[in-house]
Write a structure and sequence with these properties.
Elements: H1 5-11, H2 25-30, H3 37-48, H4 56-63, H5 70-74, H6 81-95, H7 102-110, H8 116-128, H9 130-136, H10 139-143, H11 146-150, E1 164-165, E2 173-178, H12 183-186, H13 188-200, E3 203-206, H14 216-220, H15 224-238, E4 245-248, H16 251-258, H17 260-263, E5 273-275, H18 276-281, E6 298-301, H19 304-310, H20 313-320, E7 333-334, H21 344-347, H22 349-364, E8 370-373, H23 376-388, E9 395-396, H24 398-404
Parallel strand pairs: 2-3, 2-4, 4-5, 6-7, 6-8, 8-9
Antiparallel strand pairs: 1-3
Helix pairs in contact: 13-24, 16-19, 22-23
Length: 409
């Protein structure tokens, strides 16, 4: 069987109309056809037909893609561009196995079960000041891990979840929370806030301990086998639970979980999988005011995974507008790619840095007191950019903000 045949069929949907060009971040930054969705599809078609060789230059054009999927929003032919890129990278990995650089290998280790000791070591280095000293002496550059360490926030205590958190008051449903591979270590406060908010709204919350990384890092790197193994493990972890839905806190994980059926055959989750933002936005909310007024100017970064894959950015705004007094002008909403894009910030640090600079400059232009982002990778990217400018504006998840503003009644 020719495993490249599905890629041919998907790529043939592209009529090369060029509507994607204006939407593509790399095309607008680098200005060449090969850095556009249309151009990359043409490169893949040439490679599959044998007209192009797999040179480093050819592959770099594929690697420069952020997979932001803005192109898919405007494509009249509904070309599944991300699927073409993922399948092409998987085929390329089978033909030419490659090993990622040290930073990429470390990131992969951080997303796997048993990575807690690495975070414990990082916390110790931060607490003793040794990490700051190593960066000051530029030892991180010598080791080649400067970009990964630059993204590392101040690490607080990790989240050690219970298996079950009962609803407050009259129960209205039962859900399971997908916590992701990194949130437990670097985003514990938001996970706890999500549980409290769901409990307050009447939902029992289950957290199966056997869950793993969603598989996005592996899939986008061309490792379909590892991604499929992670998917199978997650499906098995949630299967025994008597629940109404599986809820994901991070938009990137949500996008991956909801697209399991696109790239793997066989068993899938037995209940609906949804991002927490549309889940909450569609609920029947209590009539009485649930949130205290905020009375702060905020800026909002809308992650690509939420806007272009899940397409639930409207629900995010609906939720934020439930907070009285919140000041969010249209010009303070940023919908372009921030450049984090999974492991992209490690693989293409210069390009990623330019997108981060654009995002930070735009988001701080309105002088907000708070920046909101619903994707962990985006939040870490923005925090790193703000630290580089000695700017202490906090970047928080909208769920954390909602929970913080909950009234006591």
């Amino acid at each position: 069987m020719d495993i490249s045949a599905p890629i041919y069929e998907l790529a043939d949907r592209c009529v090369k109309c060029g509507l994607c060009l204006a939407e593509c971040p790399t095309y607008n930054l680098l200005g060449t056809e090969s850095e556009s969705p249309r151009g990359r599809i043409a490169l893949v078609q040439g490679w599959l037909s044998g007209q192009l060789e797999t040179t480093a230059n050819w592959q770099s054009h594929l690697d420069h893609c952020l997979l932001c999927r803005r192109c898919e929003r405007v494509c009249p032919s509904r070309v599944p561009y991300a699927e073409i890129m993922d399948r092409s990278k998987a085929l390329l990995a089978k033909q030419q196995p490659q090993h990622s650089a040290l930073q990429g290998q470390l990131l992969q280790q951080l997303t796997r079960p048993g990575a807690g000791w690495l975070f414990t070591a990082a916390r110790l280095l931060q607490k003793t000041g040794l990490l700051w000293l190593a960066q000051k002496l530029r030892l991180d550059n010598l080791l080649g891990v400067q970009d990964l360490l630059a993204m590392l926030p101040e690490l607080k205590a990790p989240f050690s979840p219970k298996r079950f958190y009962p609803a407050q008051g009259k129960p209205r449903g039962s859900v399971a929370l997908f916590q992701g591979c990194l949130s437990q270590q670097v985003n514990a406060e938001t996970l706890q806030a999500a549980i409290r908010l769901l409990n307050r709204l009447g939902f029992d919350v289950h957290i199966p301990p056997q869950q793993n990384c969603c598989g996005a890092f592996a899939l986008h790197a061309g490792n379909e086998q590892e991604a499929a193994q992670l998917a199978s493990a997650n499906i098995a972890a949630f299967k025994p639970l008597d629940i109404d839905a599986i809820i994901s806190l991070d938009n990137g994980c949500s996008a991956q979980l909801t697209e399991y059926t696109k790239w793997r055959d066989g068993e899938n989750f037995s209940v609906p999988v949804t991002d927490i933002l549309p889940f909450l936005a569609r609920l029947d909310w209590p009539q009485e005011p649930l949130f205290r007024p905020l009375n702060k100017a905020v800026a909002l970064q809308v992650p690509c995974s939420l806007r272009n894959v899940l397409r639930h950015d409207a629900e995010l705004l609906t939720l934020l507008q439930k907070i009285p007094g919140i000041h969010l002008p249209q010009e303070a909403i940023y919908t372009r790619c921030c450049g984090a894009a999974g492991s992209y910030f490690l693989e293409n640090p210069v390009i990623s840095g330019q997108f981060r600079e654009n995002a930070v400059n735009s988001l701080t232009q309105s002088h907000p007191e708070l920046i909101i982002s619903s994707n962990l990778g985006c939040a870490l990217q923005l925090q790193a950019g703000l630290r580089g400018k000695n700017n202490k504006i906090p970047v928080i998840h909208p769920i954390l903000l909602l929970e913080q503003q909950l009234s006591d009644s």
